[in-house]
Amino acid sequence: MPILPVSGLTIAYSAVEDRLVLWLRGQDQVVPLLFTRRLSALLINGLAGILARSSPAAAQAPAALRDDVILMEHQGAMAQSAAPTPDLAPPAPTEATAAPMLVETVNITTNPMDFQLIFRPPGGGGLAIKLSRADLHRVLELLRRYTQEADWALPTQPGWLTTQVTVN
What Cα–Cα distance (Å) separates residue 25 from each residue in 22, 92, 117? Predict the structure, then answer.
């Protein structure tokens, strides 16, 4: 399956469809992916678990501190200013946009330097992308924020992902 080189992404909540819409920007087109409430919950918890299990720093930390290590890694990824940030608006009507794809499953492969996500619709086929560890943290945070804004009240996520840190 070919991998779409992603140059940016946008996420929004569609109240009409009660779904999250993730637009992936490739070189010559924009691909909209639709996520249900159920899949969003599974994806948020799954990505959080994969990030925790695949963290070299957390693996070396004492068990009682692993959530703190992952939280610091997550916050560091959010703070990276050189990283691509999501656009605030959906794609312009002039952009070549593919037909929306309802995502039924997401397969995630952990590689030494990145993660491959394959978004699969109900009938087969799909779309693959590769993300760095920091980018996966950012996508996870966007999914988490937009499901909260949609007021979906999804099942409990890992504690490190719901921790609010205040700096005085």
Answer: 10, 12, 15
